[in-house]
Amino acid sequence: MKRYKLSVFFISVFASVVFTACYYDKEDNLYGNIPCKTGAISYVNDVAPVLNANCYACHSTSNAPILGSNIKLDSYANLTAYLQNSQSAFTGSINQDGSVSPMPKGGTKLAKCNLQLITDWISQGKLDN
Ligand code: HEC
Fold this sequence. Notes:
Distance between the termini: 75 Å
Largest sheet: none
Shape: elongated
Bound molecules: heme C
Mean pLDDT: 87
């Protein structure tokens, strides 16, 4: 009987160690509170990859005439040329504020941090960096 109690004791100690030891979940990962990138935003490393993943399918030089209303956003030169005259249409479309067609067309709105990257890059002077 004594032996039985002892093994129950050890099993419960073992179980409590196993079930509590591997708790690696981070609140930020679970609830999406990871802070967005701030500071200097790069066209090449930050902005272009977001546009590539979400916009080039229709707004690349080759696809824009057929799928993207001839709006070309696929290089620094094309993007800044468009922003020169149509910056409010651009920000209105990605923020889906109702003033222009919401973009990406037929897709889901860009993630908050990606929207912020683009907005910050514009406000930092649209650098070719
Ligand atoms: C599936 C194709 C497709 C994708 C993907 C897409 N667009 Fe468009 N975009 C269009 C078409 C087509 C138009 C012309 C207006 C319309 O039909 O809604 C347009 C129009 C626009 C306009 C002009 C809006 C206006 O009403 O003046 C902007 C700015 C724009 N897109 C930016 C983007 C950006 C930035 C992305 C990526 C975040 C994107 N688009 C993704 C097809 C697309």
